[in-house]
Every structure is written in structure tokens, then in C-alpha cells.
Design a protein that fits this description.
The protein is α+β, with helices and mostly antiparallel strands. It has helices spanning 3-14, 26-35, 41-54, 58-62, 66-73, 80-95, 104-107, 115-126, 135-145, 154-167, 173-186, 205-208, 269-272, 276-282, 335-344, and strands at residues 225-236, 240-241, 244-245, 256-257, 260-263, 287-291, 297-300, 304-315, 323-324. Helices cover 42% and strands 13% of the residues.
Length: 345
């Protein structure tokens, strides 16, 4: 069976109509690829539409304030993508007169652009025959060829990249790359794919050997840690609160949050007021407090689970400079904080 021709034929008949498929403008392709990293299309498409609407060119994005970019990104997670997006836009606008590099090698030099994104832009926009390898491609190749090398191991990454390159249609790299990605997303799905209607079913090793549920293979992730977060939601009599920008490096860098008390275990109501941090923070200023959520709100990240409580603190005067409560929704926040604000205020 001609693997790539079968896929491109399938793609021509079954591809979804998506806005970034109507253009070969590298700005739009780059934007879509960054947004769709670690994100399903159903979730990412509204963000793509919002970014294109607000920032129709790379110059518009470059001229934006980072706070505005982070606010528009809010809810997508992995906020380093948004920070890198903004940094790269400024670099393209300032050093390349708004013109994206036109080769895979030069695209790789852009911040936040890795092998997959560089391959996608180079092939779709410039017709360079360089193969994309994402989660969908790993799944299709591992199942079809029966490869059990872990896809997140160094050897596996090299093996699948080399295989993908060997299968590349050098005359139509854009169609082929989009076809194999779409095939993995729509047909060769992670769970319960309909193999009976698959155009590759007569030569798929995983189907023949009943390995569909076992491929691709991934090495076990690093153990997920548990953290206990206590956010202090201060409410003064003049309707001010304390809302701070996180300046330390991390996934929430430059996002806003309420003052945070991190503890080694769950903090009980009886222990809250006598906690050393609380005693120092309020320095004998009288306040009343209540617990917003008796049951921890668990926010799951890739490397840690955050067990979160929101403590509502009513106080006459804030212990430090605050901001009007009416302004907090204007600032970019982690979705954990955003959800609380939407529910409470």
C-alpha cells in the first residue's frame, strides 16, 4: 500500500474546515500551531479566532502589552507559550521587518518554536519537505508499523522522526503533513478508533496483532507532587483587595493572584488565624475570616496537583497597597483564580 497517497486521499475527503487551513500566511500558521500545543482543536480554535481578530498581523501582536496577551490567553494554560509568542512577535517585527524565516533551520531559532512547529510552518507555508511529528503522528506510525519504542525517549524521538522523513511526500509536503496529523486526530484516535473503516486496516501491524490499545508506548512520567495553596482574599471596607503579579519564574509568571500561603498539609480553620504567616502579615490588625470552600479545589497540572482553599478576610484597612475590587477582572490570572473570581464576585 502507498502509505502517503492513501493518507492524502483520505485527507482530501475527510479534513475538517478550520480557519488556519484557508491560508499559508506564516503568521497565522505559527499562531495556530503555538495555540494548539498541548491543546485540543475544540478548545484552541476560539482562542485562535480571538487572537487573529485582536492582532491581525505580527506587528499588532508585537505592539501589544504582555498583560493584554496573557489576559487573552487566559484559560489555555502553559502560559510560557503566550510569553514566548509575544517575545517572538516582537523579534520578528523588530529584526525581520515582520517577515518570518522561510526555512526549517531558521524557524527553529525562534523562541518557543521546536521541531514540530518549525516543520509545520516550513512545509505548509514554504513547501519545504520536512516531516512533522506530534502526538497524532507518533500514534499513527507506531500502530501502523508496530513500533514499541517509547515515543518520549531519546531513541524513540530520533526513530520516529527518521521514519516520518522517509515517508514524506517531497512533492506535496504540506498536504502530507496535514493529512497524517488529521488522520491521527480524527481516524486513528487514542481510544476506541473505528478500525473497520480505516483505509490502512489491511496492513496495520497493531490491528493485525491486537496492539491498538498498547501503542504508542510512553515512559512513565515523573511522580506528580502535591501542594497545598491558601489564597487570602482580602476585602476592605472601602472595597479594595490585594491582587499581586507573580514575578518569580514559573508557569504562572506575570499572572495575577491573591496573596498566597503555601503549607505542607491542609490548613484547618482552627489553625488559620494562629498560623505564624497570618500573625505576621496582619500584625495585630483586627479581621474576620471565613473559608470559601470547605472542600479543597484540586487543580491538576502536568507535574503537580494543587489542593486549594480560598480564605475570605474582611478587614477595615489593608496591610499594604491594594486595588479596587472592580479592577481585578482586567488582569490576567491562572484559570484557578479566574474561576473563583467569576463565582465569588
Amino acid at each position: 500500500m502507498d502509505f502517503n497517497k492513501t493518507l492524502t486521499l483520505w485527507y482530501s475527503e475527510h479534513k475538517r474546515e478550520l480557519p488556519w487551513r484557508r491560508t499559508k500566511n506564516p503568521y497565522n500558521i505559527w499562531l495556530s500551531e503555538i495555540i494548539l500545543q498541548q491543546t485540543q482543536i475544540a478548545q484552541g480554535q476560539p482562542y485562535y479566532n480571538a487572537f487573529v481578530s485582536k492582532y491581525p498581523t505580527v506587528f499588532d501582536l508585537a505592539n501589544a502589552q504582555e498583560t493584554e496577551v496573557l489576559k487573552l490567553w487566559q484559560g489555555l494554560g502553559y502560559y510560557s507559550r503566550a510569553r514566548n509568542l509575544h517575545t517572538t512577535a516582537k523579534h520578528i517585527a523588530t529584526h525581520h521587518n515582520g517577515i518570518f524565516p522561510n526555512t526549517y533551520k531558521d524557524l527553529l531559532k525562534l523562541k518557543g518554536v521546536g521541531d514540530y512547529t518549525a516543520s509545520a510552518i516550513a512545509s505548509i507555508c514554504y513547501g519545504e519537505p520536512t516531516a512533522v511529528v506530534d502526538g497524532n503522528v507518533y500514534r499513527v506510525l507506531s500502530r501502523y508499523f508496530g513500533i514499541d519504542t517509547p515515543i518520549n525517549a531519546t531513541d524513540g524521538i530520533k526513530e520516529f522522526k527518521a521514519l516520518a522523513e522517509s515517508l514524506m511526500d517531497h512533492d506535496h509536503p504540506s498536504d502530507y503533513n496535514q493529512a497524517i496529523m488529521e488522520f491521527g486526530a480524527v481516524q486513528c484516535k487514542p481510544k476506541n478508533p473505528n478500525c473497520q473503516i480505516c483505509p490502512l486496516n489491511d496492513s496495520c501491524v497493531a490491528l493485525q496483532k491486537n496492539l491498538i490499545d498498547q501503542l504508542p508506548v510512553k515512559l512513565k512520567k515523573t511522580k506528580v507532587s502535591t501542594k497545598y495553596f491558601n489564597f487570602l482574599v482580602l476585602l476592605s471596607t472601602d472595597k479594595q483587595t490585594i491582587f499581586q503579579k507573580r514575578v518569580k519564574k514559573g508557569i504562572w509568571q506575570n499572572l495575577y493572584q491573591f496573596p498566597l500561603l503555601e503549607t505542607e498539609k491542609k490548613l484547618k480553620i482552627a489553625d488559620f488565624k494562629n498560623h505564624p504567616f497570618i500573625s505576621r502579615y496582619f500584625a495585630n490588625a483586627p479581621f474576620e475570616f471565613s473559608l470559601y470552600n470547605n472542600k479543597d479545589i484540586i487543580h491538576k497540572l502536568s507535574h503537580q496537583h494543587l489542593h486549594t482553599k480560598f480564605w475570605i478576610i474582611e478587614i477595615d484597612q489593608l496591610p499594604q497597597k491594594g486595588m479596587p475590587i472592580t479592577e481585578i477582572k482586567n488582569h490576567p490570572t491562572p484559570i484557578l483564580i479566574s474561576n473563583f473570581i467569576d463565582d465569588f464576585f
